[in-house]
Design goal:
about 525 residues; alpha+beta; GIY-YIG endonuclease; Nucleotidyltransferase, domain 5; 3-stranded antiparallel sheet
Length: about 525
């Protein structure tokens, strides 16, 4: 074992990330520091261990070696730390273990009037992306200042068929060059967008120099409040536009390789080949309200987000995870079989069996069955899913259940669960797809709950029935749009009298939004 105290003498006083390993060389903690030597020295000082909590004491006792990675700034250290934690999932780290990513700025130059938006996912869609950015507050302030300085629109365009769409009033308060009302040509507007892009890349300092000049002028006028606000804006602008390294899989030391994880997983489960396509199902419910399910797909070990699907469970009463899992598996794969059968009927291969049609459709780039199905749960959920696959004559598709408490893997026909090493790439791959399915299901559940809370406002209107509420929502789409309607417009809906229309309009107008 290396002498850690002696090794500390070679650690520089610079910002960076440190990775701690145990006696088996497993990564157990990843941290960042403005000063690497000071931070690491604090772990091995005798006084630190005596005053540490139980978790920190256990970490210190487990450390047998560490490595450091020097970066240029504290912001880069934050980005690097988050990337390493997501890849290694160290047991002593809490933050950054979810799928949440740092913010990016996106602009699609092919749009008629491009605008800057925030996103957490970089796609291959032809758009330009800037970031990621470690400080979200500084980024939001910077983006607002960029829009105002360069006259970039912030409102979205009207969607096809949308009623009552209104543009923002940024052009009235001189925050936008107003291409939507014809105050600027597209060529001039695109030139402004290009200037804003150059600023976000750190290639232009004109805006920063202007803010510096305005700050000094405000201080000379003794307008210290204005000068302080400009000082804070200047700090945010410099933080956002400071050059930073974009960390990728290739730049991470010892990062998990998804393809290697697939090979390891196929060996652990005894699969004939690495499962290039994997699909995972999760159920989300609170009481009996809005029971939903998610299906996420991983391709070659990484998320294939366009293939994600979400479901509202409609054929199961009450909280029944087993029946809900059976329903979503049946709906998912019966649809794939129907699509393959429909393609077969429309072709010269009309006499094919469903299995033959599916196989041919898959080879032609059509709907494909996964190489492995994962259900979130234990024996009960797995048995329910297996029964549905048998009924669909898809019993040959590999399937497992992953129970979260002890990370046990249940397999059809095997009474004892399989436990993989907690630091194995195969288990971490299963954890990533399971956590992604859980996040996607919970997000859909939260969306439906928020929608239900808004719709429930109508229940308190005197004379409102379920049929009348359904008619209003079908006509106008949401409570917010109903709020904007006149009583005469509401009375035009079937089943809504003039008196009830007045009640609805008055009630929604008076309650807090």
């Amino acid at each position: 074992m290396p002498d850690l105290v002696a090794k500390l003498r070679d650690v520089p006083h610079r910002p960076g990330v440190y990775v701690m390993r145990d006696r088996l060389k497993r990564v157990i903690y990843v941290g960042k520091a403005r000063d690497l030597r000071k931070r690491l020295s604090s772990y091995f000082a005798p006084s630190r261990r005596a005053a540490a909590d139980l978790k920190t004491r256990a970490l210190i006792d487990s450390v047998r070696d560490f490595e450091i990675h020097v970066v240029k700034s504290e912001a880069e250290a934050v980005l690097y730390e988050g990337k390493l934690i997501k890849d290694f999932r160290p047991k002593y780290n809490i933050s950054f273990r979810d799928d949440k990513r740092f913010l990016l700025v996106r602009v699609q130059m092919a749009d008629p009037w491009p605008r800057f938006t925030l996103t957490r996912l970089r796609k291959e869609d032809g758009a330009r992306y800037f970031g990621p950015f470690a400080h979200s507050g500084a980024l939001r302030t910077t983006l607002e200042a960029v829009r105002k300085n360069f006259g970039i629109r912030s409102c979205r365009p009207a969607e096809p068929g949308e009623q009552d769409f209104k543009h923002c009033l940024d052009h009235v308060i001189k925050k936008c060059s107003a291409p939507c009302v014809g105050r600027i040509t597209r060529e001039d507007y695109l030139a402004k967008v290009a200037e804003a892009c150059a600023f976000l890349e750190g290639a232009s300092r004109e805006m920063i120099e202007q803010v510096e000049a305005d700050m000094r002028a405000a201080a000379e006028r003794l307008d210290f409040e204005k000068a302080a606000a400009l000082r804070d804006l200047l700090a945010d602008l410099r933080t956002t536009t400071k050059p930073a390294v974009r960390f990728t899989k290739k730049s991470l030391p010892g990062a998990i390789d998804p393809l290697e994880d697939l090979i390891e997983l196929s060996g652990a489960l005894g699969l004939p080949a690495p499962p290039r396509l994997m699909e995972c199902f999760d159920i989300s419910n609170i009481s009996n309200t809005h029971i939903v399910a998610s299906m996420v797909r991983f391709k070659d070990g990484v998320p294939d987000r366009p293939a994600y699907r979400r479901y509202r469970i409609t054929g199961t009463r009450g909280q029944n995870d087993f029946a809900s899992m059976a329903e979503v598996v049946r709906r998912r794969y019966s649809r794939i079989l129907r699509e393959a059968a429909a393609a077969s009927r429309d072709s010269e291969y009309s006499q094919e069996s469903p299995e033959e049609a599916l196989d041919r459709a898959t080879r032609a780039g059509g709907p494909a069955l996964p190489g492995l199905i994962i259900v979130d749960g234990g024996k009960g959920q797995l048995s329910s899913a297996c029964r549905e696959l048998q009924r669909l004559r898809l019993g040959g598709v590999p399937i497992i259940g992953l129970a979260k408490e002890f990370e046990e893997i249940y397999r059809p026909g095997e009474s004892a669960p399989l436990r993989l090493d907690r630091d194995s790439g195969a288990l971490k791959l299963l954890q990533r797809i399971r956590d992604e399915a859980h996040r996607f299901a919970n997000g859909y559940h939260s969306l439906l709950l928020k929608k239900r809370m808004k719709e429930s406002l109508l229940d308190d209107v005197p004379g409102m029935t379920a049929a009348r509420k359904r008619a209003l929502l079908t006509k106008f789409g949401s409570v917010e749009r109903i709020r904007r309607q006149s009583p005469e417009s509401l009375a035009g809906v079937q089943g809504i009298s003039a008196r009830l229309a007045e009640e609805v309009a008055g009630y929604l107008r008076n309650i807090q939004r």
